[in-house]
From TrEMBL:
Principal localisation: membrane
One Pfam family this sequence matches: 7tm_1
Protein name, UniProt field: P2Y purinoceptor 8-like
SUPFAM superfamilies, alphabetized: Family A G protein-coupled receptor-like
Domain G-protein coupled receptors family 1 profile span(s) in chain numbering: 41-292
PROSITE patterns (alphabetical): G_PROTEIN_RECEP_F1_1, G_PROTEIN_RECEP_F1_2
Transmembrane segments: 25-48, 60-79, 99-120, 141-161, 191-216, 237-262, 274-295
UniProt-annotated location(s): Cell membrane
Amino acid sequence: MPGNSSSIKLDNATMALFQDMNTSIIISLIYSVVTGINVVGNGLSLWLLIFRTTPKTPSIIFMINLTLTDLALGAALPFQISYLLQGYHWALGSRMCSVLTLVFYTNIYCSVLTMMAIGIDRYLGIVWPMQFKLTRERKSIAVISCVFMWGLVLSVLYPLMTTDLTYEIPELGITTCFDVLKQTMLPTVGAWAGFLFSMVFLLFIFPFCVTAFCYVSVIRKLASDSKTAQKKRAIRLAFIVLLVFTVCFAPNNILLLVHSVLRLFYKKSVYMAYKMSLCLSCLNSCLDPFIYYFACRDFRHKLRQIINIQSQSSGDSMKMEHKESLCNS
């Protein structure tokens, strides 16, 4: 990545990755666990956010947007698991490869931008509450912001939609999907640099800086507040959001930048490490429900209600069993 459109000799690191079944199995296991947690956690979150949480504040709208992107990733990961277990052989055609690759990376960067939007919303509501309350049509602004985020991400990732991302490797008898990119996907080295660096700087570093500023400002504002419970929740939320950025998104984007520079200018590769870092990127979809819990009071209340109902039901059943045992004794 990238390779020529004609027959090329792949570097040793990439060839070793394609022949390393142990790594494929490890990544597949991680993706399987992520898929299960993703579907259950975000399925419950989407149900609560849409049908049990009112009113639909801007934060709720952003959370619904984030949940939908997470569920889309959960639907795409089984195809990636199948691809890995077949030894990096893609048999579903170039169009399906492009669609699933787009879903994968759209989830990463829409998640980054949506968490930035949630951070801005909390920053305005806590640090500038009077001006924030005077802003009308906040729901409309939130919806427009979600549309803008999707448009921005799809614009940056546009080359992925217009290129055949599959690549045949005759010596291994496999056809890869997005693991070897054709150099003709973009016309010049400068275009490649612009594409890759815009992913890293525009869709990660800038949102990370904005998000960090917002949550640090919120914590500083609440530091002198008497509402210690609110302050603790804000600190926990800030910790989880920054944890997602540093653990899930930072390694992937840093390695993407390093790999791109090495590949474009020095013909070297750190692709094995980059491939492993994608596993960390997928973990964000498992941590997002925790963000909803600490960011939304109504979501937190409804979830506690469900847990209490279930615990009461289990408690009642245990009492009934205890009574039956006493009657039978």
